[in-house]
Every structure is written in C-alpha cells, then in structure tokens.
Design goal:
There is one protein chain. A four-stranded parallel beta sheet has the order 3-2-1-4. The chain is an all-alpha fold. The chain folds into two domains: 14-251, no CATH class; 324-377. It is built from 18 helices and four strands. Helix 3 packs parallel to helix 14 and helix 16 packs antiparallel against helix 17 (355-377).
Amino acid sequence: MSHARGDRRGIGVGRDAPGFIDAASLEEVAIYLWQGRKSLYRWSKDTAHIVTIMLLHDDVKVSPAPQETIRAVSSTESLESLLVSSLSPSIHIVAPSHDVRRECLRKSLKWAGENPNKVRDALVSVENSDDFEEWRESDLQLSWGAHAKRHGGLFEEEYIPIISSVIGCSEANLRSLLKKSRRSNEVARLLRATQSTECGEMYRAYLASALLRGVYHHYYAQGEGLRVFHHPFRMYGSLPKLRTNDRVEDKRTNTEVAFASILLNSSLQERTAARRVSLWAESLGASRECLRSSPGLLADCPTPDAAIDSAVAAARRWNIRTHSKGIDLAADILAQIVVTGALAFTVGPFWASAGGVVWGIANQRANVAGRVVRAVANREARLRGFALPPGRIIQ
C-alpha cells in the first residue's frame, strides 16, 4: 500500500543523487555484516542503513583515493571487495586522470597546511566519540590488512608533514612506520599487538590520513559539481566537506527506513559474513528491479505502523528472501523425506499398481512441506520485527 505525503519521494532520485560515497562507508557496511548479531555501534548501524537506501535507488561512485595506483584485493582477502563485487555493476570505482589527482592533492595539502589545528581538533573529537573504540577494534580486524595492500601502506606519504604536526610524531618515525605498513608481515605483527605504542602511533597516523583523504574527496567532488556521502568519522570538526549526510537523512521516507531494516536484519540470519553479504546484495538487486516498476511502493506513510505495513507488503510482493539458506535446505530435506518415504511405500510388486498415485500425492505433500517451512520463516510478525532499526531483531 502507498500513503504518499508531500514530495517525500525518497533519496537518490534525479538531482538528489548523492554523487560519491567514500570507501570508508562501504567498509562500514562490511563491518556491519561481519559483526552479525553482536552489539552494533551507532556508526555501523546508521551507515549500513543509509547506504542500503541509497543503493535501492541508484548506482553509486566510490570517491577516489589520492594514489595513482590502487592494487586489487581479492574477495577472499577482503569482505569489502566481496561486497563491491557482489553489487557490481551498481558500484563504480572512480579513476580520475593524473592531473586531476595531483590538483586535488595539492588543494588538500594547502588547506591542511593552513589549518593543522582543525585537523587536530577533528582527530581528537573522533577519538573521544562514543563509537570510536568499538569502531577502531572492528576496523583493525577487518580492514587494516586489506587497506594496506590496496593503497600501498596505511597512510599517504604526501601527508606525512601534516600528520607529523597533527599527532606529534617525527617525520622520520612516520616514514619508518609507513615502510613497515607496506609489508604484510609487519601489519600482521601489529595486529597481534593492538595495544602497543607502535600500533597506537600507526593507527593515529592512519586516522589522520583518513581525515585528510576526506578533504581530498571534498575537492574532487567540488571539481565534479557533485557531493560526497562521508563516513561519520569525517563529519567531526570543521573539515571542508560538501555535506551530503544531512540531506540524505532528511530525504529518506519512513517506508524506505523500514524496508532497509528488513533487508539488513534479514541478512543477519545467515551464519557467515560472506553469506550475509551475498544475501544483502541479492536482496538489494531484486528490490532495485522491482522498485523501477513500482516506484511508489516505498513512498512516505502517515504513521510508523503504516510504513512498516508497506515495507512488509513490498518485501512479500517482491519475494525478497528474508531467511537464511539453511531454511531452504531444511525445506528441501523435509520434502525429500516425504518423497523418500513414499518411494519406500511403493517398493514391491503388490504396490506397483498404486505407485503412480502414491508418488503424485507424495510430491504434492513435499511441495506443501517446503512451503510451510518457508512460510514460517517469513511470517508477518517476524517481518515486522525485521522492520525495526538494524540490530533490534525479533525472532
């Protein structure tokens, strides 16, 4: 059902398209799906939720990194790589020209050189935020190794003078740390000692560089006449940014919010992170196709309950899989048991004449058994529970 209100059509449509999304936000979605049903911090839940809504409507471009060469990281090495490949071609990796890269790097260096205190204030604000410690732990475990391989180190060499000023670490020491971060065995060693002074210095350099990359993203998007959706840690302090985040928050319909929750909470039913990514991507792809033919189905509703009703109706109408593959396997096994039992019943000459009748009945019962198992998994009360914000799951 559709209860449109005003012009709340949802985000990511026409001129409202966000333009770019930073890679850190995609990494955050990967962290969300990797964590599964564990306690999820706000940055993870909010980012996964908004990115899901963005991808319901439009393809997205990933903001480019300052490096000229980005190394490929396989899906088996990085959950983010699996996420990107699973959503291909809906996610585009931008590759600017050499001249554009250098100009954006020059502008970001110039701004940071003139405003080191703003970078320092943003860094301290991030480190003091409620979500920082849990985010840092997840980032270290899931993203650090792949990031170092992809970018040829954990921070940019060009930013070393600024990073030195911001975190109070000598340039010589930072160059030594950067050299170590280019060797996978050194990164692995640091990950076994995350509370060490050396790992702490490396992480602060990595974080300061990540904030500076956000400035780089700002200037690149500005040159393209588009906006950037920033990871929440880049929204602290007074770094220059073309703020897309607030606009996206304002444009979401309440039905989109509930529907995105169904997709995310459904994905958490899978037992492994790779399967969660696959289910999330599968559901997004199916939803995008259906949304093109029924664009009004996720329009704003007059009440939260009505929004949940519409979201559940859309999930059912579009046959979105909201259960794990284990449910399908259980249904198939139950069906096989029914058919196998019928086969045993028909063995022997006495029952040969009745075999065809019994076999037909068994097949019908097997189909019914499979449908019953899936229906229980997709019952309305369960889907309404999934429509609650991510992380709050009613079984």
